[in-house]
Amino acid sequence: MATTERSFVETVWDFFCSLKLTMFLLISLALTSIIGTILPQGQLPPEYVAQISPAKLQIYSKLGFFDMYHSWWFITLLYIFSLNLISCSIKRLPHVFKFVSTPTLVLAESARNSYSLRKEISVSGPIDKCKECLTAFLGAEFSTPIVTEHNGEYHLFAQKSAWSRLGVYVVHLSILVIFVGAIIGSLYGYKGYVSIVEGTSINTVEGRNGGQIPLGFEVLCEKFNVDFYATGAPKEFRSILTVLENGKPVPGLSQVKVIVNHPLTYKGITFYQSSYGQAAEGSEHYITVTPRAGGTPEKLTVSEGTAVTLKDGTVVKLLETTQEVRQFAPGFSGPAARIEVTPKGAAPQIFIVFKDFPEMNAQRGDALIFGYEGTNAKMYTGLQVAKDPGVWIVWLGCTLMVLGLFIAFFMSHKRIWLVISKGHARIYGNASKNQAAFEMQFDAIAEKFQKLKI
Amino acid sequence: MTSSMLFNVTAIAYMISMIVFFAFLASKNKTVGLVGSLTAYAGLAVHTVAIGLRWKESYDMGVGHAPMSNLYESIVFFSWTIVLLFAYIDIKYKYRIIGAFVVPFALLGMTWAQLGMNTGIEPLVPALQSNWLLYHVITCFLGYAAFAVACGISIMYLIKVALEANGSTAQAGGLMSMFPPLKVLDDLNYRAIMIGFPLLTLGIITGAAWANYAWGTYWSWDPKETWSLIVWFVYAAFLHARFTRGWVGKRAAWLSVIGFAATIFCYLGVNLFLSGLHSYGGGAK
């Protein structure tokens, strides 16, 4: 009974230590990850729901395919992946430590032939003098050796970058560190969104789940602007924000410019420029009507979607407005309105009137010239809000990973033995990686070694 | 003289280089091989000047930025890194014949860029106005280029294995004499991925750092991010395959080819077929 129990534990242990499991996990993670890039994730768009069969929809959502990176099976894969990493390291690290801390100081006769890098010279002086001379030589050319006397022979052992054997474990550890950072972020942080109308302030933001999260301070949007390139492409989205504590501006955080790629952070909460728009509620727009024959212009005050009837019976309806018309009407810029004009007993006409191009407005040949005088509407800025106390742990993990990869791929543990016997001395070399590069270094040392006259 | 003209010259140079390399495969004449390499180097030199010139042109237009801001510029840069890496391997390891399997990737990129894409210089939209753009694009594409080279080498490996398994005719044997030994191909494949994997890792990390700086989320499982991770998984599997019984050799070579296919999908497929944060030139989010 005892034996079968132990063998069961051993079987489980071997399973988690095996490289075959690593291969299986890496390939499974790669393949399953594809699902979430093809199927929509999170809130499903209605068009998608309409085109997929109900049975499929049910199966997919049962399998967690619509939030697959947080589904139980994907998380389980990641947990097994972590266990695999930890088990492999626990199994192999002691060997590596032993290898590094207690190196093979004495090169046994049987082991000597296994090294392809080796050279021999004959020595004539007394063996103790040879030892001193060669110890100094190896120290100068490579690294200070440890000298061991064994069976009348002297064994000189020198090594470089022994710790480079740990590189791969640093990479493994870094993955776990990143996971820890991500878990901390998801437990103690949040992502949210808030829109602030110019001149107003907020003290809560909307979380991913729709709930309101209190900030503990206020953020005031002083102003929002968009700049455009001559081509009409956006150049800069700019919010001017002020952080308020107890209604008073926080020193240094007054009138701060926040643009894309330049967020604002206060008390671990960061605000990122994300979107913008015109606050529709309660805003008024001004349209002017001038008779072509001459006369005083009439100023109409309307809101979007409403209509006004003029004295002559013409109905003017404001369809929509923009503060930058360039993307809709190439060649023009500035504020503009799209209006529908229905003269009494005639068909409605829809056209655009500009604020900055009155001559364009006048070019229409009708009896009435329409113009747009702008709005009292305010802009709002849309900000992504994030708090992530785990992010520094993630960056620590990333740094470790890059460092570990560099050590694992580009550094190697190099070892040289010098065995001095009566009448001759032999040199042997070995590198844990990139033997070809070490061979050149070894050959250079060996060449000098062979020229030694002892 | 404009950068666009120079890019055309570059594409022609790569085409000649490829044809000469094919002639090298057929003729086994060393001089032909040398001409193939020299043509590729000349193309690389013109390519470098052209990228520099395009950079300058953007400043002359008043919208100065590094030429890595849209699909066209990225594919031009990708081709450049592929030939650069080939030059490195050619000079360091002296296996010139690899050019016949690597230069075509660069030619394909340049031809597509010059014939099929809008080559105009555009100003940077707000989302791309960051120094991270440079670090992110350079690390990613150097990594991609290393994977392209590894893929070319793996194809050579698989061809050689297949022909040798066939018991091989005299003609195949003749072609085979040009190929480096299987052990060398396997080693070069590993070396190329050893360069590519840390660079891809850096590319993903700089991307995450940038995303965190611009949007407040270092990882949001956006298709581009996910595919870069898929590529990372595949090459991580490749690196472990070398120590796993049953995975050495042919299977590892296939992993390298699949890895590059995933890389290309990550780079192009995601933009063409899926939607996400990387819609170049699609305005700010």
3D architecture notes:
The complex is a heterodimer of chains A (454) and B (285). By secondary structure, chain A is an alpha+beta fold. Chain A has helices spanning 2-17, 19-38, 46-51, 54-62, 72-101, 109-112, 127-141, 167-188, 358-363, 391-410, 435-451, and strands at residues 117-122, 146-150, 153-160, 190-197, 201-207, 212-228, 234-245, 248-249, 256-259, 264-266, 269-278, 285-291, 298-302, 307-309, 315-322, 336-342, 349-354, 368-375, 379-387, 414-421, 424-431. In chain A, strands 4, 5, 6, 7, 8, 9, 10, 11 and 19 form a 9-stranded antiparallel sheet that branches. In chain A, strands 1-21-20-3-2 form a 5-stranded antiparallel sheet, with helices on one face. Chain A has a 4-stranded antiparallel sheet with strand order 14-15-16-17. The longest helix of chain A has 30 residues, at 72-101. Chain A is elongated, with a radius of gyration of 38 Å. The two termini of chain A are 66 Å apart. The mean pLDDT of chain A is 88. Chain B is mainly α and 285 residues long. The longest helix of chain B has 34 residues, at 132-165. Chain B is built from 9 helices and no strands. The two termini of chain B are 37 Å apart. The interface between A and B is large, with 47 and 46 residues.
